[in-house]
Amino acid sequence: LFEQILEQSTDEIFTGSNWLLCTLGLTNSGKTHTMFGTPKDPGLIPQCLQRIFLHIGYNIDTKVLYKPDGLENLVQTNMNNLQDEINYRKYIFKDDKDDYRRTRLQSIVQDQPSVLDDHSVEDEHYSIWISFFELYNESVFDLLIKPSAMKKRKALRLMQNNESTVIRDLVQIPVFDLKEAEDTIRFGYANRATSKTDLNEASSRSHAVLCITLITIDEFEEEPTMSHMCKFH
């Protein structure tokens, strides 16, 4: 299925194309399995991510030179504007046995301040950013923020930005390899709103949207570029 409908589209993100995959169906019809699959039989999303990271290879931007600003623009990183991402990664990977992933972004900022300020790059490098949200009861909720039993979830606001609509304050975090990406998505998926139905003991009561943002930094281009792959189900 991946080869038939998504392989070419996944490759096109490296040419600056944006695309949306939408899956709709009845409860218990197999949408989640199709999208996520199992470790032995990966779904469409893990296969997309695997192909992206295979394409990137060693050209991952480990210096995190640029970040999306949430308004469809890119901003240069510095010692201060990565602090939120550092904290979110610590929280998402807090149960990880390997402390390296929790502190990886923080180490980059602390150990390479001159590199962050310089923003020089050789050849072509890429960074991957993930955001994950759900539409529930006509409101938007961030799935990368774990709901609190003591506090009502905060609904995010929509904003118009030129010709596009953006979600204000939506969390986006950088991931450096396939496992980080999969674990981030798994963390978000566990935060979805669910309830029991006649067909499913824990059916999702929302529509989830996963967005994978690719930032391309090319030494021969004056400005980096950004493209999106979004999956709605």
Automatic annotation (TrEMBL):
Organism lineage string: Eukaryota, Metazoa, Spiralia, Gnathifera, Rotifera
A GO biological process held by the record: microtubule-based movement
GO MF term list: ATP binding; ATP hydrolysis activity; microtubule binding; microtubule motor activity
Organism: Rotaria magnacalcarata
Protein name according to UniProt: Kinesin motor domain-containing protein
Domain called Kinesin motor: residue spans: 1-233
Sites where the protein binds ATP: G25, L26, T27, N28, S29, G30, K31, T32
InterPro entries assigned to the protein according to its UniProt record, in alphabetical order: Kinesin-like_fam, Kinesin_motor_dom, Kinesin_motor_dom_sf, P-loop_NTPase
A Gene Ontology cellular-component term: kinesin complex
Cellular localisation: Cytoplasm, Cytoskeleton
Family per record: Belongs to the TRAFAC class myosin-kinesin ATPase superfamily. Kinesin family.
